[in-house]
Amino acid sequence: MALVRNKFGINSEQIRNKFSDNKALLIFMIALRSDITASNAAQKLGLNQRTIENYLAELKQAKIISRKGANKTGYWTISI
Protein backbone atom coordinates (compact mmCIF):
# COMPACT_ATOMS: atom_id res chain seq x y z
CA MET A 1 0.00 0.00 0.00
CA ALA A 2 2.50 2.54 -1.19
CA LEU A 3 -0.35 4.98 -1.79
CA VAL A 4 -1.03 5.31 1.93
CA ARG A 5 2.66 5.47 2.78
CA ASN A 6 3.29 8.16 0.17
CA LYS A 7 0.18 10.14 1.01
CA PHE A 8 0.19 9.90 4.81
CA GLY A 9 3.74 8.86 5.76
CA ILE A 10 2.57 5.66 7.44
CA ASN A 11 2.93 2.10 6.19
CA SER A 12 0.48 -0.80 6.31
CA GLU A 13 2.33 -2.61 9.10
CA GLN A 14 2.04 0.41 11.38
CA ILE A 15 -1.68 0.67 10.66
CA ARG A 16 -2.25 -3.07 11.21
CA ASN A 17 -0.35 -2.91 14.51
CA LYS A 18 -2.49 -0.02 15.73
CA PHE A 19 -5.81 -1.40 14.42
CA SER A 20 -7.13 -4.80 13.37
CA ASP A 21 -6.43 -6.12 9.88
CA ASN A 22 -10.01 -5.45 8.79
CA LYS A 23 -9.90 -1.87 10.05
CA ALA A 24 -6.59 -1.37 8.25
CA LEU A 25 -8.14 -2.71 5.05
CA LEU A 26 -11.05 -0.32 5.51
CA ILE A 27 -8.64 2.60 5.84
CA PHE A 28 -6.88 1.51 2.65
CA MET A 29 -10.20 1.23 0.86
CA ILE A 30 -11.06 4.77 1.93
CA ALA A 31 -7.65 5.95 0.72
CA LEU A 32 -8.35 4.44 -2.69
CA ARG A 33 -11.98 5.54 -2.94
CA SER A 34 -13.12 8.26 -0.57
CA ASP A 35 -16.80 7.93 -1.50
CA ILE A 36 -17.06 4.25 -0.51
CA THR A 37 -20.15 3.26 1.43
CA ALA A 38 -20.42 0.90 4.38
CA SER A 39 -22.46 -1.42 2.19
CA ASN A 40 -19.79 -1.52 -0.55
CA ALA A 41 -16.98 -2.01 1.97
CA ALA A 42 -18.88 -4.81 3.70
CA GLN A 43 -19.40 -6.57 0.39
CA LYS A 44 -15.74 -6.29 -0.58
CA LEU A 45 -14.47 -7.42 2.83
CA GLY A 46 -17.09 -10.14 3.25
CA LEU A 47 -18.35 -8.65 6.50
CA ASN A 48 -21.71 -7.50 7.80
CA GLN A 49 -22.62 -3.87 7.02
CA ARG A 50 -23.22 -3.20 10.73
CA THR A 51 -19.67 -4.39 11.48
CA ILE A 52 -18.29 -1.89 8.96
CA GLU A 53 -20.46 0.86 10.46
CA ASN A 54 -19.00 0.03 13.88
CA TYR A 55 -15.46 0.13 12.44
CA LEU A 56 -16.17 3.51 10.85
CA ALA A 57 -17.52 4.85 14.15
CA GLU A 58 -14.41 3.63 16.00
CA LEU A 59 -12.09 5.16 13.40
CA LYS A 60 -14.02 8.44 13.55
CA GLN A 61 -13.83 8.48 17.34
CA ALA A 62 -10.07 7.85 17.15
CA LYS A 63 -9.89 10.80 14.70
CA ILE A 64 -8.35 8.62 11.99
CA ILE A 65 -11.12 9.38 9.50
CA SER A 66 -13.82 11.99 9.19
CA ARG A 67 -16.86 12.42 7.02
CA LYS A 68 -17.26 15.51 4.84
CA GLY A 69 -20.54 16.51 3.29
CA ALA A 70 -23.95 14.89 3.34
CA ASN A 71 -24.58 11.19 3.94
CA LYS A 72 -25.39 10.43 0.31
CA THR A 73 -23.05 12.82 -1.48
CA GLY A 74 -20.22 13.13 1.04
CA TYR A 75 -16.84 11.47 1.25
CA TRP A 76 -14.32 10.21 3.80
CA THR A 77 -11.02 11.87 4.63
CA ILE A 78 -8.07 10.26 6.37
CA SER A 79 -6.22 12.33 8.94
CA ILE A 80 -3.27 10.13 10.02
- Helix tally? 5
Largest sheet, if any?
2 strands, antiparallel
State the CATH architecture. Answer: Orthogonal Bundle
Q: What is the helix content?
A: 55-70%
What Rg, in angstroms, do the CA atoms define?
A: 12 Å
Overall form = globular
Intertermini distance? 15 Å
Instruction: Write down how many β-strands occur, each being a DSSP E stretch of 2 or more residues.
Output: 2
Can you tell me about this structure?
- With 80 residues, the chain is mainly alpha-helical.
- It has one domain (2-78): Orthogonal Bundle (Arc Repressor Mutant, subunit A), CATH 1.10.10.
- The chain contains 5 helices and 2 strands, in the order H-H-H-H-H-E-E.
- A two-stranded antiparallel ribbon has the order 1-2.
- Helix 2 crosses helix 3.
- The radius of gyration is 12 Å and the shape is globular.
Keywords:
mainly alpha, single chain, Arc Repressor Mutant, subunit A, 80 residues
Compact overview of the structure:
The protein has 80 residues and is mainly alpha-helical. 59% of the residues lie in helices and 10% in strands.
Topology record:
Blueprint: H1 2-8, H2 12-18, H3 21-32, H4 38-45, H5 49-61, E1 65-68, E2 75-78
Antiparallel strand pairs: 1-2
Helix pairs in contact: 2-3, 4-5
